[in-house]
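Problem statement: downstream parser choked on a complex file, so we are re-checking the raw output for the nicotinamide-adenine-dinucleotide run. The parser issue turned out to be on our end (a line-ending mismatch), but while we're here, posting the original submission so the record is complete.
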Amino acid sequence: MKSLKGRVAVITGGGSGFGRELAIRCAREAMPVVLADVDVSGMEGTLSLLAPGSTCIIQRCDVSRASDVDELADVAYRTFGECAVLFNNAGVGAAGPAWTATLDDWTWTIGVNLMGVVHGVRAFIPRMIEQGRECHVVNTASAAGLVAPAGSSVYCASKFAVVGFTECLFHELRAEHPQIGVSLLCPAFVDTGISRSERNRPQSLRDTNPQAEKYAEQLRKAIKSGKLTAADIASTALDAVQTRSVLCSAPRTDRGKRRGQDEGHRGGASTDLSATSILKPCFARVLARAEPLKGPLHF
Ligand SMILES: NC(=O)c1ccc[n+]([C@@H]2O[C@H](COP(=O)([O-])OP(=O)(O)OC[C@H]3O[C@@H](n4cnc5c(N)ncnc54)[C@H](O)[C@@H]3O)[C@@H](O)[C@H]2O)c1
């Protein structure tokens, strides 16, 4: 989608982190923005950061609830008549070993991270198909959808599932509705609110992994050490929409290379991640899987 001006962006998790920066970037492109989040004051904070004259509405929405996401789509289409770019971005993190992860950890994390994306696709894609115009979906997975560090089983399970789901969606839309592009966002260790996800955890799902803290502390340190900002990630995601890249990873911070024009954009590794050597082949495998399927898997 080369031209974004005047096209509508819907951003879940718009009250903080990547979602907030995506809103700032989209508004700068003169896109009307619909923000969705459980955190209304967070969305109001985002609203206050948008360029003067921006068009933006906020909608309280728990993405783990299909009815909330259906309502979000109703609001977007009633207000603006379209959704051109959907960012299925809201997410939460739960830490701790697999064998002590609680059922509440599973219900909460899968509900937001995986079912939130599923609900977004079910609510918006049929309407995007009806629109008949060029549209795009960006699903936020994570580097933790490609590699599996200790203490992340629940989060990784949710994000690996988002990777697989998004790759299927990519193949399906390319075959049947190629006017709708799909990108998978796989960042790692960016200092946002993600390490404080518990702030949005429902009371009804409060039974937390009793061994979470040791791993959560490691995660907080890793996130603090990340060199990329949420604004960098938002730029990468917007670039991917404009170039219809299937995989958006972190941009390289090697300033010798032009941002968005290097392998980092199409899915190569970020140069400032300690895990680069692990991630690089993972990115290559995602890109290889984006080639049209052949053989017994080709229907
Ligand atoms: N920060 C990182 O290092 C990192 C790395 C890889 C992937 N991610 C992913 O990026 C996405 C955005 O996270 P972030 O880092 O900006 O964190 P963040 O905590 O700053 O933002 C997440 C937003 O999602 C919202 N949210 C939580 N539960 C929700 C629900 N049920 N319904 C609607 N909104 C809800 C929160 O209120 C918050 O505004 C997530 O999917 C996260 O898993 C983050």
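For whoever reads this later: The beta strands are 9-12, 33-37, 56-60, 85-88, 135-140, 180-185, 247-248.
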